[in-house]
Amino acid sequence: MNLQSDDFELFGLPRQFAQDLGAIDARWKDLQRQAHPDRFAAQGAAAQRVAMQWSARINEAYGRLKDPLRRAAYLCEMHGARVDAESNTAMPADFLIQQMEWREALDEAQDVGALDGLNMEVGRSRQSLLRRCEQLIDHELDYAGAVAQVRALMFIERFAQDIGNRYEKMESRAG
User: Fold this and answer.
1) 85-87-89 Cα angle (round to 5)
2) 85 near 145, Cβ under 8 Å?
3) Global confidence as pTM
């Protein structure tokens, strides 16, 4: 293992968006078993510290590879297409209109059924954007184009959290 390896190299995976999540999980377990600090107890504290660094590095890579949004952003960044989500919030007008409509629907949702419908619509949009990321990254090698999809996915992830919070509010009022 090499600390300088990118996440894909570390996990022995192709540098692409489409991944077998079961393979990521299996490789994570194998790498964690290899790097577990207890395996290095007989070699002293320094070896255990290095093993702990490896374990942290493996967990960091696992988190990025397992999450499709983080994986897409990582691939874009690896290929020189910076996501810059904090400083670049420009989005296409139709996406912004969709966001406003969803926000209104969330504000107006009075029952779980309305929230379920909105949640399903947002989920379909998320899946569509993930498919587009795969197309742009794996097939067209258009990392700059994928950045816009990644930023849109970030908006959707935050909005999905807002929906989750609204579900919790409804449950607490009902309980």
Assistant:
1) 60
2) no
3) 0.88
Contacts for 39 with CB less than 8 Å, ≥ 6 apart = 51
- Using the structure block, give the residue that is written with the tokens 């059924």: 113
CA dist 146 and 130 (Å) reads: 10
DSSP string for residues in 76-87: HHHTT----TTT
| Long-range pairs for 3-7: beta carbons < 8 A, 24 or more residues apart | 3/53, 3/54, 3/57, 6/78, 7/60, 7/61, 7/64, 7/65, 7/74
Contacts of 29 (CB under 8 A, 6+ apart): none
Going by C-beta distance under 8 Å and a sequence separation of 6 or more, which residues neighbour residue 175?
none
Q: pLDDT per residue over 137-165, tens digit each?
A: 999 999 999 999 999 999 999 999 999 99
Q: How far apart are CA 27 and CA 21, in angstroms?
A: 10
**Could you read off the pLDDT of 93-114 as tens digits, one per residue?**
999 999 999 999 999 999 999 9
Which amino acid is present at 64? R
What is the number of H-type helices and E-type strands within the chain? 7, 0
**H-type alpha helices, 36-91:** 45-66, 68-78
- CB–CB of 167/109 below 8 Å? no
